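Researcher: Before we compare anything, I want clean individual predictions. No alignment, no superposition, just each chain on its own. First chain goes here; please echo the sequence and then give the structure tokens.
Model: Echoing the first chain and its structure:
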Amino acid sequence: MMYLCSLGSNIEPELHFSRAKHYLAKLSEKLEFSRDIVTQPVGINTNKPFLNALFTLETTLPANELKQHFNEIEELLGRDRSDPQSSIKDRPIDIDILGPLSEQPQVPEYLHHLQQELMSLKQ
């Protein structure tokens, strides 16, 4: 299954993106990233901008197992997922599954152009 996923960070983002990409490469040989862009925070109270990217990843893992691997990478890179406020705090890394590519998953408006660019590379 090919998944469309997102990557975000607003704590030492260049460092954490590099490390996350290293770990993600261990999950799949078929991994393709969009370019990285800087965005303003959405849904959290912070002044720190985010570095964001989209990526596609092919795997035989079901989505719930893939998300477990993403959570492990987040924790390795310093995210405290046990904190009930973790979804609204600054974060070293955030890795999400947007959905199977075959189902044309929805992406946040501010990432639409990255989705278009990434999909054009796949054609």
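Researcher: Okay. Second chain, same rules.
Model: Second chain and its structure:
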Amino acid sequence: MIKVGDTLPAVTLTEYSEVEGNGCSIGPNPVEVASAAAGKTVAVFAVPGAFTPTCSAKHVPGYLENAEALKAAGVDEIWCLSVNDAFVMGAWARDQKAAGKIRFLADGSAEFAKATGLTLDLTGRGMGVRSNRYSMLVKDGKVATLNVEGPGKFEVSDGATMLAQAK
């Protein structure tokens, strides 16, 4: 499992873009993790699935509520990762009204989750291999803090905890 001091895995995620610009076309666009995190402080949080109850009602709203304070504390970007496709992540970002505040990045084949060792096997529930629920503060591509939730828990990966760690 990834740990504090480790470098983020060099995988490519996808992000749905609503508008064309800055070299991005409308629709799914590749996001190379290493280059996207280089020289930045990024608050990353991962969830088992888009549109799921805890993720939609608590996890994302907590980061939205703390977005301005996180930026004031030196966080350049907030990333939400989930093992879903870019179309689902784009729809979820619209539903959560997160434009300009949180980047919703799709880990469609669970490559990032597998590379970090933070997978959650929900095959028995018909959801396959997913990402565990966690958060991490990343500075210039290296993990500065890591908060991994226990099974079925939502206690340490919330926006308020991330804000306290970013200060």
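Researcher: What stands out in the second chain?
Model: Strands lie at 12-17, 27-32, 41-47, 77-82, 103-106, 119-122, 128-131, 134-139, 142-148. Additionally, The first strand starts at residue 12 and ends at 17.
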